[in-house]
Amino acid sequence: MNPIIILGSGLAGYNVAKELRKLDKETSLTIITADSGSFYSKPMLSNALAGKKPPSAIALNSPEQMATQLNATVRAKTRVTAINPATHTVSIGDETLAYSKLVLALGADQIRLPIAGNAADTIITVNDLDDYGRFHALLEGQNPKHVAIIGAGLIGSEFANDLAVAGHHVDVIDIAAQPLGRLLPPEGGAMVKQKLEALGVAWHFGTGTKSVDHHGNELNVTLDNGATLQADIVLSAVGLKPRTDLARAAGLAVNRGIVVNRNLQTSDADIYALGDCMEIEGLVMPYVMPIMHSARALGATLGGKPTVVSFPAMPVMVKTPACPTIVSPPAPGAAGEWKVEQTADGIKSLFVDASGKLLGFALNGVATAERAKLAPQLPAVLAAI
Predict the structure, then answer these.
(1) Is 340 helix (H, G, I), strand (E, B) or coil?
(2) Residue 155 above 80 pLDDT?
(3) How far apart are CA 258 and CA 322, in angstroms?
(4) How high is the mean pLDDT of the chain?
(5) What residues are paired with 229 via a beta bridge?
(6) pLDDT tens digits, one per residue of 336-362
């Protein structure tokens, strides 16, 4: 029988393989990945600098170790160039591999903005362990570095905190009016802003990045409002875009992500998707907990126990130790309003509907202690069926 093939070796790819092996130790399994194939937790990348963690300290297992653990073939630094549903094959250049079932755990790419300037090609992103290795190398040597971060969302704010604690100078640029603008009401955003300012982070809100140019040994970062910043490194962290090109070229249904049903099945019955690349009931969820729930469900399905995925409320801890923050945003388009309670040491923001039902929350500072009490009151993201 042809193997199950998993494309991708991130948390989604490796965890679905682990879940499959709990039920089925022997079915032939191949994992193909364009990156190094090491097993690591991607969320660690945005808080590793303060802990002085080199790339080697983040990787938990080598691809060879993962292959042994999973009784699988792991092909690292290998890029699949086409999926052929009609023949149940994938192409790696001129090589063709047959599959029985195919799992797309392709992840997402950092969004790149159209920024002008003769140094625009020096703008970096940190989206995997190899990227972190390059970023870490740039930061080594003469310290501190001056880093300009484009984007004040989740990843941009986490990197700002991490870089500042590690001793670097940080400027953060965003068209929004506050950090974490999609996750926090203004009061919570103001607290994050203030706490990170105390670390030395400089914020530039209400403006975008126009150009990045060489200026001697530095970079000139020109903002849309005409201001200019000097930096050694420019890091872009403006969001993620699901990797859908392979699926689209194969004729699979694609919207913002690769469209799947509650069995994580794409429009082709023998192809599945999970993680950052998938879209389920209109939702794209680039967080760890949806990956873990999906991996358990899909591992069971592939192991012969068809399982529908469900998602409970899944609060997200933002890794900004200067301002502890936990968020569970309301569903997109939910009708309601924020009710904010503020003390000197914390902010509790509750998003409630007209009847007072809790639909989401944002907790800052000491208010994060209320997570355990509030989370059970939230509606499920995707209820069990």
Answers:
(1) strand
(2) yes
(3) 36
(4) 96
(5) 221
(6) 999 999 998 999 999 999 999 999 999
